[in-house]
Amino acid sequence: MAVVDITDDTFEEKVLQSQIPVLVDFWAPWCGPCQMAGPVLEQLSEEYKDKVLIVKLNVDEQQKYASQFGVMSIPTAILFQNGKEVGRQVGFAGKQAFEDLIKKAL
Amino acid sequence: MFEKLEFAQKPKKGETWDVAIIGSGPSALTAAIYTTRGAASTIILGGENWGGQLKLTTVVDNFPGFHEGIQGPELMDRMRFQAERFGAEFVEKNVVRVDFKKKPFEIYTTDEAIRSNSVIIATGARNKWLGISGEQEFLGRGVATCAPCDAPFYKDKIVAVVGGGDSALTEALVLTKYASKVYVIHRRDQLRASFAMQEKVRKNARIEFLWNTEVVEIMGSSVVEKLKIKNNKTYEEGELLVNGIFIAIGHAPASEIFVGQVDIDERGYVIVHDNTKTSVEGVFAAGEIHDAYYKQAITSAGFGCMAAMDALLYLDKDIPTW
Fold first, then answer.
1. Do A96 and B110 touch (CB under 8 A)?
2. Identical fold at B17-126+251-314 and B129-247?
3. Which of A34, A39, B54, B121 has the CB geometry, 3.0–4.6 Å to A75, for a possible disulfide?
4. Which of chain A's residues have a Cβ under 8 Å away from the Cβ of B48?
């Protein structure tokens, strides 16, 4: 399943009210490491489909939740479970780092 | 698109490569352009987070051929395309271990072993940290190392940049596009940065220098709120209210995986003789892994070219007249 774009308007429904854990990729088009993280998250989205939902939020256009969760570096990936943050990964540190994060909710 | 030209047959899985290049910055990719064109089968172990320091910059104004400047990440994409155009195999995996005592040499990623008759070490250098309280705790919550990535989060805010070289001043300039105030905190009373860069910075009214100053602690509740600073001449301590701090105090060579394999000096640089040769015959080094002085994209590219030519000679390949 492809990584879908969410917005501040859909954050509540897609992330906070989700039945399964959600990994949110806070990113922007001008960020080099975000571009490298993108394809890796696409892969993980396939590998963990039905277990974890992976979505992305463009912080250039959508600032409400980025600011609420204190995102001040991108890429930052935050894992949510039952509407609560259970972990985050700041910067792109490779696929394994994302998997270690995802496993916190499995 | 350019014509793809391949001069060497790629080995089958498990077979031995002519050249394995570890790294993916300007030295690694330039080396690959030369080894592939010298008809040596070439594998680049570029790492998951590939492209090196230039992937974390904005515009590069001092790389020849780009008179209007080029974005660092784009420059690295182009170098990679160029190496791949001549048949280099690019692997986006991290190297975890090497064995240069075996022949052919062995290089291990997280899930496979690669064998090669020669190796070019081009892992470059990575950001140095201050090693002070608060630095790792607030990483991504006000502590940052990549202004081009994170500057927009500091719109109308106050930030500090620690360091005095070109990279620190570049970070400071990027930040002035967003932040209302940028302190440059430097432990000496003069800059190491180039004259051109210093001129740019002096003209910028949002930048203020704090000389002979060191950051002692980074403080805040959930995000960075202030710094404890100390003047290293007067020993006076004080607090500085900031929303963020960018660490740009230089880079340290990424040589950990080569310890015990090739000679390394006390600062972590791979020791070379005759320009690019390491203590192991057939293993070469290029770029910031051995160069503690020049540290430019163009010099790293030059070192990469030299290492490639030396590797081709070692492999007894004909050196074409480029």
1. yes
2. yes
3. A34
4. 36, 40, 92-95
